[in-house]
Write a structure and sequence with these properties.
single chain; alpha/beta; Hypothetical Protein Ychn, Chain: A; 5-stranded parallel β-sheet; 7 helices
């Protein structure tokens, strides 16, 4: 998979999630294949329908920019979701509803399978 970007999204911190999602969306917008794996920390925020509202309370973004940050984070999540797979172990561990995961993300996959499919992709962990 030459030219592919594979991002493992681990952190649920809004700023880190924003960074990982930005990488996926930017790569895709340039026509570069990109896929993500949402693991333990990132999975719940990615499934959260209230992500935008919750991101308003982030402390690393100045108050005047929080609304734009939160809105963009939700938009990035929505844009990247079709290329993000949920880690099977994380789905089970956090008690996520498999049907909801499959509805909102690309599906569920094991980490070893994700890595096999990523092959020689450029790997980023956020």
């Amino acid at each position: 998979m030459v030219g592919v970007l594979a991002a493992i999204l681990e952190s649920g911190e809004p700023e880190r999630l924003y960074t990982g999602l930005s990488l996926l969306v930017s790569a895709a917008s340039e026509g570069r294949p990109a896929r993500g794996l949402a693991t333990f920390g990132a999975l719940a925020p990615l499934l959260d329908p209230q992500l935008e509202r919750r991101a308003l309370s982030t402390t690393h973004v100045v108050e005047a920019e929080r609304e734009a940050f939160a809105r963009t984070l939700a938009q990035l999540r929505d844009a990247a979701a079709p290329s993000i797979w949920a880690c099977a172990a994380a789905v089970q561990a956090i008690g996520a509803d498999w049907a909801v995961v499959n509805e909102r993300l690309a599906g569920v996959i094991s980490t070893p399978q994700f890595l096999r499919e990523a092959g020689d992709a450029q790997m980023v962990v956020v």
